[in-house]
Give the backbone structure.
Amino acid sequence: MGEIVFQNTLGGRKEPFVPLHPGEARIYTCGPTVYDYAHIGNFRTFVFQDILRRFLKSRGFKVTQVMNFTDVDDRIIANAAAAGVSIREYTDKYISAFLADRKALGLETPEHMVRATDNIEDMVKLIERLTAKGFTYVSDGSIYFRISKFHDYGKLSKIDSGGIQAGARVDVDQYDKADARDFALWKAPKPGEYFWETRVGPGRPGWHIECSAMAMKYLGDTIDIHTGGVDLIFPHHENEIAQSEAATGKPFVRYWLHAEFLLMDSEKMSKSLGNFYTLRDLLAKGNKPSSLRFLLASVPYHRQLNFTQEGLQQAASSVERLRNFVARLRSGKFPAGSSTVSQTAVKALDLFEQSLEDDLNTAQALAAVFDLIREANTAMDRGEFRQGDVAPVEQTLQRFDAIFSVLTDDDAERLRALGMGADTAPSDSEIESLVAQRQAARKARDFAASDRIRQELAERGILLEDTRDGGIRWKRK
Ligand SMILES: [Zn+2]
């Protein structure tokens, strides 16, 4: 197998992946701010991270991934107060929802999922280290990072910090490049606001310090890969670098990997445009979890993904084609021997691996698998497929599914786990049609089919009763 290369935002070019500790990959992932349900654009980034970790694991790396929950910020404090509940109670709800959504999309669980509010002491320690080195100052009870003292400021986002006015401050967590200023590490509490009493004073951590503190606590001063969406490059990741490297004097991250935006029908997703969807919104419209996973995974993370209903339908039929092919492969009786499909399968696997090695080019990896399926289906149609072809094709499919994870037909189960199974209740016309099919089966003395339909209806909450005149009556349970 070949060398793995990643497009490193730091430096802006593709570089071979060489971890700090051979055989290990330590990954930090910026997790959600848990004040609402995560939207499909967020999940684009999380699916990319899942592909990344599955691929590295498939190459024998011991992966240690840390993902944080930002469970304190302005919105959370305001929303929890408005709802009359504690911050913990407010955020618990959205953390559970996020974990359930991840499961529905088949995302593996990172080795550490950590809450900011459980790691306040580590943030305080980091602020103390920065203060001891002269990187901080206090204004109105808040503690700021002095960016003019950190000479590498701007190296990730390519911002020129030379002209930035010393001492100009910014208090919000998210801001534009044009507003590059000293940012808050620790925020003094506003009247009536929840705060922590600590050695650096009363207040709460800024967003950026959370990630620096938790990344280094769980993964060490220098980590291999830091991931996030491109919208986090500035200021969040730039500020993480400043805080971490100012404190340790060591490089913070070796490879910065950023997922591009997801566009909704070629537009930026926003609540005001009415094109804003959570995962649950899309599932409630009847889409399958596997179609969503496939669509989000199919566009390489480094390219913008234009999310359309048409694309979603294509994803659904691609998954269908894959599953149908697997069923055909596993149930088919083929003559002994082997055909050229065996060599195609080996070549497809090579191409699949090479594509992922090249900065996770998922589109090219998928093309290799679908080319193989086309050729194998044609060979089966013509009676040229042989028993000896099954094993190499299976092997390619298994490697594929270790990364893409869509072959198991368990969408109904995944929906039920999200409490969305109720939607499987059939309509009256669908019931009438099934009842008619069952009657026809009985008439044809196909009792297996008749029983199967009765069973399916029972599972979907419909009871059948035979009437004395040989007819049938149905009712909902
Ligand atoms: Zn972060």
Q: What stands out?
A: The mean pLDDT is 93. The two ends are 57 Å apart (CA to CA).
